Amino acid sequence: MGEPNAVSITEETTSGPRAGTAGRKLALVADGQPPRTLHDTVGELEAIKATARQGPDPHATRRQHDKGKLTAHERIELLLDPGSFTEVEALRRHSATAFGLDRRRPHSDGVVTGWGTVHDRTVFVYAHDFRIFGGALGEAHAAKIHKLLDMAEAAGAPVVSLNDGAGARIQEGVTALAAYGGIFRRNVRCSGVIPQISVMLGPCAGGAAYSPALTDFVFMVRGISQMFVTGPDVVQAVTGERVSMDGLGGADVHAGRSGVAHFAYDDEVSCLADVRHLLALLPSNNRELPPVRRSGDPADRRLDAVMDLVPVDPSRSYDIRAVLGEVLDDGDFLEVQESWAANVVCALGRLDGHPVGVVANQPCLLAGVLDIHASEKAARFVQLCDAFNIPLVTFVDVPGFLPGVEQEHNGIIRHGAKLLYAYSNATVPRIQVILRKSYGGAYIVMDSRSIGADVSLAWPTNEIAVMGAEGAANVIFRREIAAAEDPERTRRQKIDEYRSELMHPFYAAERGLVDDVIDPRDTRSALVRCLAMLRAKHAALPARKHGNPPQ
Predict the structure, then answer these.
(1) Widest pairwise Cα distance in the chain
(2) Where is the CoA carboxyltransferase C-terminal domain (predicted)?
């Protein structure tokens, strides 16, 4: 009698025309046990995948929820259309052995990767699973991300990363650091090819912070997400400064002070809802046009409300966002970096169903002046729109560049040149609308006809000049004013003379620098007509490896 678990080999012979050697089957049968069936193996597979989804520690999910955080799979379900997610390499395990890692080899290795749909369009996603090694990145973990980025590039579809990790896996040493390099290289290769969106849902420290910085958009959630190169303990040890994690790199810090984050939210649900909204405004890749979504908002709707929104006096302020709400479809737009450099507004919206990128001076903050941060913010937004075939509409109400020693010493020249470079290099349809004042170099930089705007429109309140009438009169007529019996009266006369001669609303139009002076109520319909005309625009740049923009 054989051993209880011994396996015997039996030979079965079939009859019929193919009987003989070709018809023999070898079967492995465990003595005393029925043969395994496909049902058995599938059941085993389902059990393994269920364990991988639940995580190796049964209490880890509760701890994640206690921190006010969702799990990786819960986040993916909120992001993607219901039932659309296909996971890749769910059973991947690391092969590291140092410091006890050979005894801890959970499936997925701390990152969930795959693809699904958002509004029925393919989107790739990877999500760190903080329940496994704190979401720390090791070689196998990174290999999954590398594969996903390669797949997204090949498929021509956006990538969303849901970041909640503790950085490099220390036990794997330099291998983990090199794995980050593979992610960074792919981020750069995909830049301007497919949209890349980073959603910060936990800590992101050290070199891990550079992947989000290389992507197109960064979303953060208050209270649970932080980004910094060196943490509070290191900062205190080196500089003596004491600061909390949120105070050093929280959502409000990066949304309002550093400009690293484009959006900040109070909870994960609203954050991921706006990621879906953003994806609906972007094309899948740089070879496609952004998706059209028609609404019931008439293309020729008159903007009666703008007549009372914008004061004629150029020194009075107003909120440009109210104007954008009148112009864009259904008054809806998604403002980018709302809390940083708020003296310029950058937003994505639609006109007659077609996505557009809007750059607009904000007169209710610093009079809408351009400074270092506003120039940087607008320049990168212009480059993003140009990369992804999104037409640009620029609303101009700018008194110039911000004067001051600090601005000059910090490089307003090179930073302002970034915006000039971005507009001049952009080949998408570009329309300029001058609402009121447009003075000095800022007039040129805000997408004037001279740097390549396809169409320039102006309201009858426009004032385009080297500088304001007051400043111009003080320079040109300085001696005459000083010698007058009544200097103040003479100064006022010269201001009026300069304004009527060189700053009247039709001066630029008479010289072909503005294509038309329009009734403000017709702004929406004029933009829709111009964009329809420009939809097939093709503009080729000179052959070159790449330009060398100012830094």
Answers:
(1) 130
(2) 298-547
Integer-rounded Cα radius of gyration of the chain: 31
Q: Which residues contact 545 (CB under 8 A, 6 or more apart)?
A: none
Average pLDDT of the segment spanning 390-412: 97
User: What is d(CA 215, CA 338) in angstroms, rounded to the nearest whole number?
Assistant: 18
Per-residue pLDDT band at 98 (split at 50, 70, 90): low
Give catalytic residues, as residue numbers.
206-207, 441-442
SS3 of 228, please? strand
84 SS3 class = coil
Strand 203-205 relative to strand 226-228, pairing: parallel
Cβ 70 vs Cβ 131: under 8 Å? no
- Give the DSSP letter string of 247-310: HHHBHHHIIIII---SEEESSHHHHHHHHHHHHHHS-SSTTSPPPP---SS-TT---TTHHHHS
Using alpha carbons, list the distances in angstroms from residue 218 to 78, 196, 215, 476.
18, 9, 7, 49
Structure tokens at 205: 């420290």
Q: Which domains does the chain have, with CATH numbers?
A: 57-281 (3.90.226.10), 305-462+505-534 (3.90.226.10)
Predicted structure pTM score: 0.88
**Confidence check: pLDDT of 20 > 50:** no
E strand or H helix at 245: helix 245-249
Answer yes or no: are the C-beta atoms of 135 and 111 closer than 8 Å: yes
Q: CA 4, 6, 7, 13: dihedral to nearest 10 degrees?
A: -70
Q: What is the C-alpha separation between 306 and 322, in angstroms, rounded?
A: 8
- Spatial contact of 438 and 398, defined as CB atoms under 8 Å apart: yes
Beta strands 344-351 and 333-336: pairing type? antiparallel
Neighbours of 359 (CB within 10 A): 27
For the chain, the helix, strand and coil percentages under 3-state DSSP, each to the nearest 5: 45, 20, 40
Q: What are phi and psi of 442, to 5 degrees?
A: -65, -30
Q: And the tokens for 389? A: 């075939």
Angle at 472 between CA 467 and CA 474, to 5 degrees: 140
* Whole-number pLDDT of residue 275: 98
pLDDT digits (tens, 9 = 90+) for 274-316: 999 999 999 999 999 999 999 999 999 999 999 999 999 988 9
Q: What residues contact residue 451 under an 8 Å CB cut-off, 6+ apart?
A: 420, 423, 424, 444, 445
Say yes or no to pLDDT of 11 above 50. Answer: no
Nearest-angstrom CA–CA distance, 415 and 144: 38
- What are the structure tokens assigned to 318, written together? 């107003």
Q: Do β-strands 344-351 and 86-88 pair in parallel, antiparallel, or remain unpaired?
A: unpaired
Distance of CA 539 to the CA centre of its chain: 25
